[in-house]
Amino acid sequence: MTKLDDLIEDALTHENQTLSGHSVEPGYFAQAKGLFHGPLGWVMWLVYIVQVLAFAAAAFSFWQMLIVLESVMAVRWGIGAVLLFLFTLSGKSFMGSHLEANRILREVKRLELRLSMMEAAKANDSVGEPK
Predict the structure, then answer these.
(1) Torsion sign (Cα): 93, 95, 81, 55
(2) pTM of the prediction?
(3) pLDDT tens for each residue of the chain, 131 residues long
(4) If you count Cβ atoms within 10 Å of the first and of the last residue's Cβ in the chain, which end, N or C, has fewer?
(5) Domain chopping of the chain, boundaries
């Protein structure tokens, strides 16, 4: 590496240490809990409740598939169980995509903070310079 690369790396390391005090990445459970707040919180609650109900119905359908004696009825219960499990998985993927979107928004805000800190530092440097 050249001396310029070392200087850039040192400056970025210093900025990251400064920013890490301002924004700490929350853990997974804190991020998941954050889905249920904000403007889309009611949608997440609705998806979660429907998802739990679909899982319970899928488990019941699977149990019925195992205990029924007729083949045709077993297939019908099995298809219902599979469809309900797929519905549950689609709810999980919906919530997971919003979790990722929240993470991306948090990083964008972190970049905005970095830019505003750089502009503030630049403004402070230009004030102290003689004209």
Answers:
(1) positive
(2) 0.67
(3) 577 667 666 666 665 655 555 567 788 888 889 889 888 899 999 999 999 999 999 999 999 999 999 999 999 999 999 999 999 999 999 999 999 999 999 899 989 988 888 888 888 777 656 55
(4) C
(5) 30-119
